Amino acid sequence: MPPARAVAASRPRLTAWRDWRSWPDSLANLWRRSLRFRTILVTLALTALAILVACIWMALAVQNNLFQDRKDQVLADSRRATDAAQATLDAAAVQGDSIQIQNLWRGVQDTLAEQSASDMIAAFRIDRSPSQLAPQNFNTLGLTEEVISVGMREAVQSDPEQQWWQSVALDRADVQVPGIIVGQQLQVPDFGGYELYLAYDLGSASQTLGFVQATLWIVGISLVLLIGAISWFVLRSVTIPIGEAADTSAKLASGELGVRLPVRGEDELATLGRSFNAMADSIESQIKELADLSLVQQRFVSDVSHELRTPLTTIRLAADMINDQRADFDPATARAAELLNAQVQRFETLLTDLLEISRYDAGSVQLELEPTSLAHLAEDVIGSMHQLAEQHGTDIRFVAPGGYSPVEMDPRRVRRVVRNLLGNAIEHGEGRPIVITVDSDQQAVAIGVRDFGLGMKPEDVERVFDRFWRADPSRTRTIGGTGLGLSIALGDARLHGGELAVWSDPGRGSNFVLTLPRQGGRLTTPSPIPADPGEDSIAGVDDLGLTQPIEVLTLDSSTDAATSRGAS
Amino acid sequence: MTSRILVVDDDTALAEMIGIVLRTEGFETVFCADGSKAVDIWRTERPDLILLDLMLPGMDGIEICNRVRAESGVPIIMLTARTDTADVVKGLESGADDYIVKPFNPKELVARIRTRLRPAAQSVNETLRIGDLTVDVAAHEVRRDDAPIALTPLEFELLVALASKPQQVFSREMLLEQVWGYHYKADTRLVNVHVQRLRAKVELDPDNPKIVTTVRGVGYRAGAVV
């Protein structure tokens, strides 16, 4: 019993075989996709045509030749018989004796039958005038006047010497067979010319011809089939390596850099294999080199960060200790201790950010997902940055029509992103209010941080996520940012399968929107909060109020009360 | 009585600075810069706690940890510059009680050390039952059918924390606060690794725990008293 797999595999083919309507399609498909099928079809068609022409030509030639031979033979035979009959007639001396004439005529008939190979003989008197003594017309085996055409008879009557022949169909035992009728005159003394006709049966020649033709056709068809089979086998030896090469290329393209083609012999296919393998070697080594290089670079950044950590710890401990005792120092030294401590912390932040970036570059970041309410997280962050905002005289407004229900995210990273966006907004917000919006729809949750500060030019917006980039280098920085914050924020957003969009307009401020998909995966729909705030203005912010409820339509089922809250 | 702390770190500047910080806080310090000598120094000095750098010449911190743990339950706190590698988990699995990531500030260091050195919170004369075990809190002893089971102070504390409230399910965060003294979000791997170590010692079948049971998605709970 065959294995189950083979049975399963043969079934669809069987149904496809039965479904004859799909044949043209599948054939067209084969024609398009199979080099072997196409080549074999073309080879078969051309070979069949060539063999057909050859066979027809040969059949015609054989037929001609056979007929010609037989005709010559027939003409000679009939000439000999006629000559013998004529000799018999010439030699006889019959003086109007009807009995003698009858005997003589019978003798002529016997001579004709003996001398010729034909058994169909007919003789007709040319002179139609009635005569008592003239020998009778005769014919044997149905060679009647009807069989012989009028044209032939006229031709025979016209010339006493000439031999005439014609191809006819003869009735032999109710079967039509091809035949030749040869006609000429026979001179009977005293009674003038008689038309003499001898019919010859070509049946045996026709049989030979049929046999030869059948043989030709059989050989021709066998030849076509044989050539088809040969070309199938020959092509197999070419197309299989080509198919192998195609498969191997596909594997290589999909990243399996170790695959190679087997190289056999010295022919073109072997050359193809060698070139392919050389190409694969080169690609592999270059990719490996690049990967190594990038790995070395990443490891270097990571190592530097780590190596810096030990001395930094010592400095940190020392700075902290000195800072704790700054009350005992003179004011200048005390301030120095304070600065030292603050800058050591900044240095530490920078180092941490660098390390984080190197982790992104190495692709070694793992999200620690847990269900988190984005709205509550935003409230937390606003609370923790309240003091900083107050120092800048900035009012933070929090609008959350949605986004309360927990969504899987890495809260540590999202908190870091929000802190970063809010910190930037405070720093660049010129002391004007900042609006934080949290909203959600069925696919995503989003948080927008809108400031009404100076804003950025379009070419600056494009570079805002670049590492260590700052919009205006001359501006003093008041918050100890590292210049890596937005790069890391973007990395965090992408790691969540989300996005971080930015809108900015000089004079109107900026808007950063972080959007995270609800069910992991990728974002497919636009964010619940558009990055472009449209025609909003600071004046509108005051309309938000601090505790007034806002009517907002939302799809988020968990948000039963759409409210706006003042964070402060 | 002042506690003695062994600082194992090959960076002499950092070791000295840690020494200064600890002495300011009233601890006595012993130093070792060579990993291969650390175990010997520990044996002769018998400190109350070990601060152990993971990357050391001679013998690495994990190996030292393993060797010390084979003989004693002395509290070990790792110092590490890498948070994201498997080193932290490996260190915890080899028996370190806690770890601090460089760079750290002095207050954090001292707080971690004090948590590990504090006397067992439950000094009341009490005997707890958990599963088929008897926990004598005052004597710091755990027995199964009169056969004592040796636990490190941390593991003992973890077991007592669970056994003292047999009805309660402890989340990892609660255990981090109660046993490790973290008042903010810390690494829950600490709990996971030490629960595994504890189970390896007290469970008859660690794959099918009866003493420290897992409550999926929440945390851990003491097994029913047999």
Tell me the radius of gyration of chain A. 56 Å
Distance between the termini of chain B: 41 Å
What's the number of domains of chain B? 2
Corresponding CATH architecture of the largest domain in chain B: 3-Layer(aba) Sandwich
Mean pLDDT of chain B: 86
By DSSP (H or I, 4+ residues per run), the number of helices of chain B equals 8
- Which CATH class of one domain in chain A? Alpha Beta
Quick recap:
The complex is a heterodimer of chains A (568) and B (226). Chain A has 568 residues and is of the alpha+beta class.
Key terms:
heterodimer; A: 568 residues; alpha+beta; Helix Hairpins; Heat Shock Protein 90; six-stranded mixed β-sheet; five-stranded antiparallel β-sheet; 14 helices; 13 strands; 15% strand; rod-shaped; disordered N terminus; disordered C terminus; B: 226 residues; alpha/beta; Rossmann fold; Arc Repressor Mutant, subunit A; 2 domains; five-stranded parallel β-sheet; four-stranded antiparallel β-sheet; 8 helices; 39% helix; 22% strand; globular
Walk me through the structure.
With 568 residues, chain A is of the alpha+beta class. Among the domains of chain A are: 107 residues, Signal transduction histidine kinase, dimerisation/phosphotransfer (DHp) domain (Helix Hairpins); 199 residues, Histidine kinase-like ATPase, C-terminal domain (Heat Shock Protein 90, 2-Layer Sandwich), CATH 3.30.565.10. Chain A contains 14 helices and 13 strands. In chain A, the strands form 3 sheets. In chain A, strands 11-12-10-9-7-13 form a 6-stranded mixed beta sheet. In chain A, helix 9 crosses helix 11. Chain B folds into 2 domains: 114 residues, Rossmann fold; 96 residues, Winged helix-like DNA-binding domain superfamily/Winged helix DNA-binding domain (Arc Repressor Mutant, subunit A, Orthogonal Bundle), CATH 1.10.10.10. Helices cover 39% and strands 22% of the residues of chain B. In chain B, the strands form 3 sheets. Chain B has a 5-stranded parallel beta sheet, sandwiched between helices. Chain B has a 4-stranded antiparallel beta sheet with strand order 6-7-8-9, with helices on one face. Chain B has a 3-stranded antiparallel beta sheet with strand order 10-12-11. In chain B, strand 6 and strand 7 form a beta hairpin. Chain B is globular and about 55 Å long. Chains A and B meet through helix 7 of A and helix 1 and helix 5 of B.
